[in-house]
Amino acid sequence: MATSYKELGLVNTREMFAKAVKGGYAIPAFNFNTMEQMQAIVMAAVETKSPVIMQVSKGARNYANGTILRNLAKGAVEYAKELGCEHPEIVLHLDHGDTFELCKDCIDNGFSSVMIDGSSLPYEENIALTKKVVDYAHKYDVTVEAELGVLAGVEDEVASEESHYTKPEEVIDFATRTGCDSLAISIGTSHGAHKFKPEQCKLVNGVLVPPPLAFDVLHEIEKKLPGFPIVLHGSSSVPQEEVKTINQYGGKLEAAIGIPEEQLREAAKSAVCKINIDSDSRLAMTAAIRKYLAENPSHFDPRQYLKPARENMKKMYIHKIVNVLGSDNKLSK
Ligand code: G3H
Ligand code: 13P
Ligand code: ZN
């Protein structure tokens, strides 16, 4: 039997995106695969009074099971209330859905928002698939994120490491014909912890600074679709202190470079109203666990090392919300 997200106390993205575009801030979209990530996300959102998108990838469903993740999200709403937030605004979102069937399964089972990622398809096929998902989702008041343009990394396995920026001249036609609620664009971000090669960066005061995002492309898109919600994937900043901790305690992460936070702050002031962060959470968790186990080699109770991991993720989420995206104190009630 189908479960509506409304029964779980979740919300879709429509109102929160409209407010975010107007208000010049972005909603954090944090990926989660484990209970500890869910707890850290909820604690951070409650403490900062921020709306939040909890997103589940296909990989997360394979790892943790879709039913368990859905129930964690239901638990997230109740947990937020228990922590003192009377009216939490939590979205359960499918990240990078690649088929109609997967999106339908999520819509039928408690998700309030889905992404259909047809960005690797030819343009007309992306439109047809996205429209099919939108038509189904809107019957249940579920919102749909689509994508135009290709990010380097996981989405571009076939070709080179190069990304293909979104073509501003396509966005009006795409948004009108698909009816999507938000659009993920490619302007130079990419997935994972290795977004740039050191040779692409400039050395400024001992820090490798990557090339700036294509703000000209973003502004062109904003002009074509005024007020339309834009999404940035691949927006982890890869904090160098976490990379350093990981390497100090036995890890081997080389040339891990992310998107500078000032650039995300600038993007959040525009029509970019959803910023996706996954890798930074992985780094925060791994750094804390490596450090804890190195300093306490005789400990073996997972609660002992998962507790500092959860704390470190929570700290990172709060930092993103308050200092980068500006979504703190933006709950409607
Ligand atoms: O966009 C990719 C997200 O970081 C999810 O990654 O597919 O390894 O869960 P995943
Ligand atoms: P990062 O790998 O930069 O965290 O991007 C995550 C993402 O875009 C999830 O869809
Ligand atoms: Zn993504």
Describe this structure in words.
Helix 2 (35-48) packs parallel to helix 4, helix 3 (58-64) packs across helix 4 and helix 5 (100-108) packs parallel to helix 6. The chain has helices at 14-23, 35-48, 58-64, 66-82, 100-108, 123-139, 171-178, 215-224, 240-248, 261-268, 279-295, 302-325; strands at residues 27-31, 52-57, 90-97, 113-116, 143-148, 182-185, 202-204, 207-209, 230-232, 272-277. The two termini are 32 Å apart. Mean pLDDT is 95; it is low at 155-160. It has 333 residues and is α/β, with parallel strands linked by helices. The protein binds glyceraldehyde-3-phosphate, 1,3-dihydroxyacetonephosphate and zinc ion. The site of zinc ion has 6 residues, from strand 3.
Quick overview of this protein structure:
The protein has 333 residues and is of the alpha/beta class.
